[in-house]
Write a structure and sequence with these properties.
Number of strands: 10
Number of helices: 11
Strand order of the largest sheet: 1-4-5-8
Shape: globular
Strand content: 15-25%
Structural class: alpha+beta
Radius of gyration: 21 Å
Order of helices and strands: HHHHHHEEEEEEEEHEEHHHH
Low-confidence stretches: none
Largest sheet: 4 strands, mixed
Oligomer: single chain
Length: 377
């Protein structure tokens, strides 16, 4: 049995690598350092839309490619390899996928074709202050007003909120959870910029009796399952992005140590350096295995709670170790702002901590094991 990627999957990956590799450079990324300008390359986003890549997992009926989550994970790996300044995870995974899976047909017809054409940019508000559980909103509530809902509360660190046209979020409604697609320009919506380690544009979102019409409601009840479904795929997407970023950082270090000489020989020939690079390679290949195991299960709508937790634990630990090792073997060059490695180290840390670090997922996995839920047959 062939466990490799199919020809179509490799073509998606190759197309993504070609476009992102050509369009994303260290010089272009430097323009976003220290929030000099919003970290969103609109020209690159347009090129990706024209190539159809952000819509790789959108059904053909709505203008997408009709592939699945594995193909989307391959795209996100390439985005991580270049740390591209585009909202692929937020638009394609956190918002577009749950809309396609759970929204009423009328809302799908309204949003999906426009998103495929690049006319709508989407994001999702996943966390609140001191609450990283997307399925259990505490600070955001909704009250009925006829067919509409009035939503009040706050969400924390919403990526690309000011740049997006619609924001998917959950709110507590009469002891249950509703999920809505909020118009960013609606009355009562306010955004406050916050700074993140990786310079990704993020905003604190405050809602004051924002009216969401019935045509913009994904579900009125049972939204916890919707947000759990979306969060699982977002975590897996972070793992795929971490895989690409880690792999690029390792290859950058391997190239540098092969060229940098000390005592008349390449640094790469030192045993200690070779061991550190070998450890990085093993970590990254383990992350690749766990990430695509989780992605494969999600693609088939199978239970993947355990595999997602394992992948996120590896994503955190791998990113942490690769960041330290690559900086170490680079010496002072590793922290030089004129050299690109430092940006990758920031993103490795960013992905590590987003939606729970390794310790959080390790504790959750331990509870599942203790309860007999994560044991394999």
């Amino acid at each position: 049995m062939d466990f490799g990627f199919s020809e179509e999957q490799r073509e998606v990956q190759a197309l993504a690598r070609q476009i992102l590799g050509e369009q994303v450079t260290a010089e272009k990324l430097a323009a976003y350092d220290e929030y000099a300008t919003p970290r969103l390359d609109k020209d690159l986003w347009t090129k990706l839309i024209e190539a159809g890549l952000p819509n790789v997992a959108v059904e053909e009926a709505y203008g997408g490619m009709g592939f699945g989550f594995v193909e989307l994970a391959l795209l996100l790996e390439e985005a991580g390899r270049t740390i591209a300044p585009v909202p692929l995870t937020q638009h394609c995974v956190s918002a577009l996928l749950p809309i396609q899976r759970f929204a009423p047909d009328a809302l799908k017809e309204q949003v999906l074709p426009a998103a495929v054409r690049g006319e709508l940019l989407l994001t999702a508000a996943m966390v609140e202050h001191l609450n990283e559980e997307p399925a259990t909103p505490v600070l955001t509530t909704a009250t009925p007003e006829g067919d509409a809902l009035l939503v009040s509360g706050a969400k924390r660190a919403v990526p690309f909120a000011a740049e997006a046209d619609r924001i998917l979020l959950a709110a507590e409604l009469d002891g249950d959870v509703a999920v809505v697609l909020l118009d960013r320009a609606a009355q009562g919506v306010s955004l406050e910029p916050v700074h993140s380690t990786a310079f990704e544009p993020q905003y604190d979102l405050t809602l004051d009796n924002v009216r969401v019409g019935g045509d913009a409601i994904l579900v009125r009840n049972g939204g916890a399952a919707v947000m759990t479904w979306a969060a699982q795929r977002t975590v897996a997407a972070l793992c795929a992005h971490q895989l690409g970023a880690s792999d690029c950082a390792m290859r950058m270090a391997a190239s540098y140590t092969s060229e940098r000489e000390q005592f008349g020989v390449p640094v790469a020939t030192f045993q200690a350096v070779g061991h550190r690079m070998a450890d990085c390679y093993i970590d990254i290949e383990c992350l690749r295995l766990t990430t695509f195991q989780a992605a494969s299960l999600l693609d088939s709508e199978a239970d993947a709670d355990t595999e997602i937790a394992i992948a996120k634990i590896w994503a955190g630990d791998c990113g942490h170790r690769v960041s330290y090792a690559t900086q170490h073997v680079h010496g002072g060059t590793g922290i030089d702002r004129d050299y690109p490695l430092w940006r990758y180290c920031l993103w490795l840390r960013h992905n590590e901590m987003t939606l729970g670090g390794s310790s959080v997922h390790l504790a959750a996995l331990g509870e599942r094991l203790a309860g007999g839920e994560a044991l394999f047959d």
